[in-house]
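Quick one, tokens below:
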């Protein structure tokens, strides 16, 4: 018997929605985005000082408007040579209205002169989950690598063309969706969450 429950993603980022749907596709649950439900203009100011804080803020605000299991995530790139920057400000590193290219250019500029062995970094994702009764759960995932000297690859989004994954020596931008979904920070966080969702559904 099909479940009537659904997971609602607080994101309208098409890349992110596609990635999450792909990883959760074998669960017996409908996965929709906020845009699918007519909340394209729904936006939350991400003003918390942690990924977890921002993720829960987005999930809790959306849970006031729609019924279902709400998932929101926040992801940051933490570069060791920059004391963890851009971190929680990754999406707006070069300013509130910056695009991916602006952010990547600023990152490369700020890492000018830093040798490859000191360009270590970690992508982290925190996924917040708010159930219909208001109870909260979370999952985390990370992926370590280095920041390259120039962009490589056309796939992915954000800092993907600059992030060289440890042990593979190629960027997320050079990977297929399948490759990235097998080892990315978001994939790791979703796999951690998937077991929890499975238990909830049962």
């Amino acid at each position: 018997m099909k479940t009537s429950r659904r997971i609602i993603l607080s994101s309208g980022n098409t890349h992110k929605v596609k990635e999450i749907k792909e990883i959760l596709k074998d669960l017996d649950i409908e996965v929709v985005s906020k845009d699918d439900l007519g909340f394209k203009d729904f936006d939350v100011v991400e003003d918390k000082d942690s990924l977890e804080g921002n993720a829960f803020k987005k999930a809790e605000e959306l849970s006031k408007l729609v019924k279902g299991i709400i998932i929101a995530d926040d992801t940051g790139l933490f570069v060791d040579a920059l004391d963890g920057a851009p971190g929680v400000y990754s999406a707006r590193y070069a300013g509130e209205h910056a695009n991916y290219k602006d952010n990547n250019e600023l990152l490369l500029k700020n890492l000018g002169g830093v040798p490859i062995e000191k360009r270590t970094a970690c992508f982290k994702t925190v996924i917040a989950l708010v159930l219909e009764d208001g109870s909260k759960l979370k999952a985390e995932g990370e992926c370590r690598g280095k920041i390259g000297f120039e962009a490589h690859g056309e796939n992915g989004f954000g800092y993907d063309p600059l992030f060289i994954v440890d042990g593979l020596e190629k960027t997320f931008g050079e990977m297929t969706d399948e490759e990235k979904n097998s080892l990315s920070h978001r994939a790791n966080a979703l796999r951690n969450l998937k077991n929890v969702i499975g238990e909830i559904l049962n």
